[in-house]
C-alpha cells in the first residue's frame, strides 16, 4: 500500500487521481485551497484519506501539510504536484501582477512542495515525484506564453532534480496532458485584463472558452499515471492524450528540422 500526496484535488486531474488512488486501496493526502471540497473523500475512506488545506503559494501551509502528512502516515511514497491554473493573454498584454501570481502558483509552489518532502524521501532513499505539466511547455501556442513558461520551468527543474536524486533512490516524472474534460477551460483559466487589438487574430482567438467538449477522460488519465508510477521503469516524460502525443512529437521533429541545417555553423565555433 502506497501513500500519495496530491495537490489541487478539488476538481480535474487532482480529483480524478485522488479518487482512483483511493479506490485502488492506496492512502492519499488530498489537498485543496478549500478543504471542504475534498472532505467527502476523507469521510468515504476513513483512515486512508486525509483532507488538508493547501494553497501552494503559502509556505506556512506547505510546512503544515507536510508535517501532518508525515505524522499521519509515516512517509509519502508519491508526491503529485497538480495544483495550478491556466492563463490566456499575449506576452505584451500581461501585467506584472498577473505574471508573478501565475509563476507563484505554477512554478514556485511546486518547487517549495518538492523541497518540503525531499528530506524525508532522502532519508528513506525512496520516493516518486510527479509534476503535472502541459503539452504547452513544448508547443508554445499563441496567448499561452507565460503559462507555457511556468510549465517549461517546472520541467527544467524536474530534469535537473532527476539527475540529482536518482543515486538516492528517488524517481521523477513529468506529465504533459493535452485537452481533457476538466474545468481547465472554465474556472481554472484566467484571462489577462489587457486586450490589444493587434493581437485579436493570434492570442485573441484563444480566449474563447470551450469547456466540456475536450476529448480526454481525466479518469483514464489517472489510471495511466498510476500505471506509470508503478512501472518497473517509470517514464521520465509521460504524454497524455492523442493531441499531446501528436503535437509534442511534431514540435520535437520541427525543432530538429530547424537545428540540423545549421549543424556545420553550430559546431564550427571552437578556437
Q: Could you please describe the fold and organization of this structure?
A:
It is built from 9 helices and 9 strands. By secondary structure, it is an alpha/beta fold. Strand 1 (3-6), helix 1 and strand 2 form a beta-alpha-beta unit.
Which stretches of 5+ consecutive residues score pLDDT under 50? Answer: none
Structural class: alpha/beta
Q: State the helicity in percent bands.
A: 40-55%
CATH superfamily: NAD(P)-binding Rossmann-like Domain
Identify the CATH class: Alpha Beta
Number of domains: 1
How many β-strand runs?
9
Key structural traits:
single chain, 271 residues, alpha/beta, Rossmann fold, 7-stranded parallel beta sheet, two-stranded parallel ribbon
What is the gist of this entry?
Helix 3 runs parallel beside helix 4 and helix 4 runs parallel beside helix 6 (145-165). This protein has one domain (3-265): Rossmann fold (3-Layer(aba) Sandwich), CATH 3.40.50.720.
List the helices and strands and how they pair.
Elements (H helix, E strand, L loop, with lengths): L2 E4 L5 H12 L3 E6 L6 H6 L4 E5 L5 H15 L4 E4 L4 E3 L7 H29 L2 E6 L3 H4 L5 H21 L4 E8 L11 E3 L26 H13 L6 E4 L1 H18 L3 H5 L4
Parallel strand pairs: 1-2, 1-4, 2-3, 4-6, 5-8, 6-7, 7-9
Helix pairs in contact: 1-7, 3-4, 4-6
Amino acid at each position: 500500500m502506497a501513500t500519495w500526496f496530491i495537490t489541487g484535488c478539488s476538481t480535474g486531474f487532482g480529483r480524478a487521481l485522488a479518487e482512483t488512488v483511493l479506490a485502488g486501496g492506496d492512502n492519499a493526502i488530498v489537498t485543496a485551497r478549500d478543504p471542504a471540497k475534498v472532505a467527502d473523500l476523507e469521510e468515504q475512506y476513513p483512515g486512508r484519506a486525509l483532507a488538508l488545506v493547501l494553497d501552494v503559494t503559502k509556505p506556512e501551509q506547505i510546512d503544515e501539510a507536510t508535517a501532518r502528512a508525515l505524522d499521519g502516515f509515516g512517509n509519502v511514497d508519491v508526491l503529485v504536484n497538480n495544483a495550478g491554473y491556466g492563463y490566456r493573454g499575449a506576452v505584451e498584454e500581461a501585467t506584472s501582477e498577473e505574471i508573478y501570481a501565475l509563476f507563484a502558483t505554477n512554478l514556485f509552489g511546486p518547487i517549495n512542495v518538492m523541497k518540503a518532502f525531499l528530506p524525508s524521501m532522502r532519508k528513506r532513499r525512496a520516493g516518486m515525484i510527479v509534476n503535472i505539466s502541459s503539452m504547452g511547455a513544448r508547443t508554445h501556442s499563441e496567448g499561452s506564453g507565460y503559462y507555457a513558461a511556468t510549465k517549461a520551468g517546472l520541467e527544467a527543474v524536474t530534469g535537473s532534480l532527476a539527475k540529482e536524486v536518482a543515486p538516492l533512490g528517488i524517481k521523477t516524472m513529468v506529465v504533459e496532458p493535452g485537452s481533457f474534460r476538466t474545468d481547465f477551460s472554465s474556472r481554472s483559466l484566467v484571462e489577462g485584463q489587457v486586450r490589444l487589438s493587434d493581437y485579436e487574430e493570434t492570442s485573441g482567438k484563444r480566449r474563447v472558452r470551450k469547456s466540456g467538449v475536450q476529448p480526454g477522460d481525466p479518469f483514464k488519465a489517472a489510471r495511466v499515471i498510476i500505471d506509470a508510477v508503478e512501472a518497473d521503469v517509470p517514464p521520465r516524460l509521460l504524454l497524455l492524450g492523442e493531441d499531446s502525443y501528436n503535437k509534442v512529437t511534431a514540435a520535437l521533429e520541427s525543432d530538429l528540422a530547424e537545428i540540423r541545417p545549421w549543424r556545420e555553423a553550430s559546431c564550427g565555433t571552437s578556437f
